Amino acid sequence: MATVIYRDRDRTAPRVTWQGIEFLDGQPVAVDDPALLAKAAANAFFEIAGEAPAPRRGRPPKAVTHREVTHDENQG
């Protein structure tokens, strides 16, 4: 089970309720819902500690490659 910590970064909501679970600023809350853990991981106001959610199925994301641009390509 993972622990979710809410961070009131802009100091406007020291307490929030998300999907029926109350989060207080800086207080760890045990969460076992994989969907909520995935959403919390993508939300800047939440941190995940403990076990991470299961990896997503399917293809891994495409790697971004860097291509060097020559001086001639920059001149238009």
How does this structure look, described?
The chain has 76 residues and is α+β, with helices and mostly antiparallel strands. The chain is 16% helix and 29% strand. It is built from two helices and five strands; from the N terminus they run E-E-E-E-H-E-H. The longest helix is centred in the middle third of the chain and has 8 residues, at 34-41. The radius of gyration is 19 Å and the shape is globular. The N and C termini lie far apart (56 Å).
Short description:
The chain is α+β, with helices and mostly antiparallel strands.
Topology:
Layout: E1 2-6, E2 15-18, E3 21-24, E4 28-31, H1 34-41, E5 46-50, H2 71-74
Antiparallel strand pairs: 1-4, 1-5, 2-3
Q: CA-to-CA gap between the ends?
A: 56 Å
The secondary-structure class comes to: alpha+beta
Proportion in helices: 10-25%
Query: What fraction strand?
Result: 25-35%
The unreliable regions are none
Rg: 19 Å
Q: What is the oligomer described by this structure?
A: single chain
Counted by DSSP, the helix tally is 2
Following the backbone from N to C, one meets helices and strands in this order, namely: EEEEHEH
